[in-house]
Amino acid sequence: MVVQIKVVGTEQFQKLARDLKQAGNGSLARDMGKEMKRAAEPMVDDMQNTVRGLTTLGGGGRGGASARAARTAHFLRRRKLTAKAIAAARTSSGLRASAARTVGTTVSTSARSAGVRVRSRSSLMPPDQRKLPMHMNRGTWRHPVFGGDTWVTQTVTPGWFDKPARRHAPRVREGAFRAVINTINKLGS
Questions:
Q1: In 21-92, which ranges are E strands?
Q2: Which of 125, 135, 148, 166 is least surrounded by Cβ atoms within 10 Å, i.e. has the fewest?
Q3: How far apart are alpha carbons 152 and 144 in whole angstroms?
């Protein structure tokens, strides 16, 4: 799942890209990227809060211990195994918290456009659970319960990713455009 917002095609932007490259001023480009990322923060926060607040209906409710253990192990694989990290992994290994952790932003700039991308990175989930954030966004998914013979359907309110994206997109677009204009103005002075 990806929300991508681009500022494209203006002659000013093409000139900005050339000027930044010629000036060799990496700090201006970094500042523009930070400003664009900052513009997307309210959208990311809203998505994370929305997915954390979902209530799951059907299929048990608390989730299986093996799925939680897999998310804990996956969360710890890139970290030092300190007591604090292990405690944090155990308390934040629920499905909603894990889905919230997948949401992040990336900024890209090229000669013709600049963009900020908000996405749910499935690679941050264990391999057998990577499609869960997408299914949660749709509102329903099926899975086996203990023993594997019985399957249940779980449902949540759909749109934890899409609804905040639609709600915040105009402001993020405006903020990204403002970041480009501010950088153009800094180069001009």
A1: none
A2: 148
A3: 6
Answer for the pair 145, 60: CB distance below 8 angstroms, yes or no.
Answer: yes
Query: What are the residue ranges spanned by the domains of the chain?
Result: 2-61+102-188
Burial of 156 (0-12, 13-18, 19+ CB in 10 A): buried
Q: Are the C-beta atoms of 136 and 42 separated by less than 8 Å?
A: no
Q: Which helix (H) or strand (E) holds 140?
A: strand 140-144
How does pLDDT run across 109-152, given as a tens digit for each residue? 766 677 889 999 998 888 888 999 999 999 999 888 877 788 88
C-alpha–C-alpha distance, residues 61 and 72, integer Å: 18
Q: Bin 139: left if φ > 0, else alpha if -120 < ψ < 50, else beta.
A: left
| pLDDT tens, residue by residue, 24-61 | 666 777 888 899 999 999 999 999 999 999 887 655 54
Of 1, 189, 8, nearest in space to 108 by CA: 8
Instruction: Say which amino acid occupies 54.
Output: L
Q: Which two structure tokens, joined as six digits, stand for 1?
A: 């799942």
Interatomic CA distance for residues 141 and 80, integer angstroms: 33
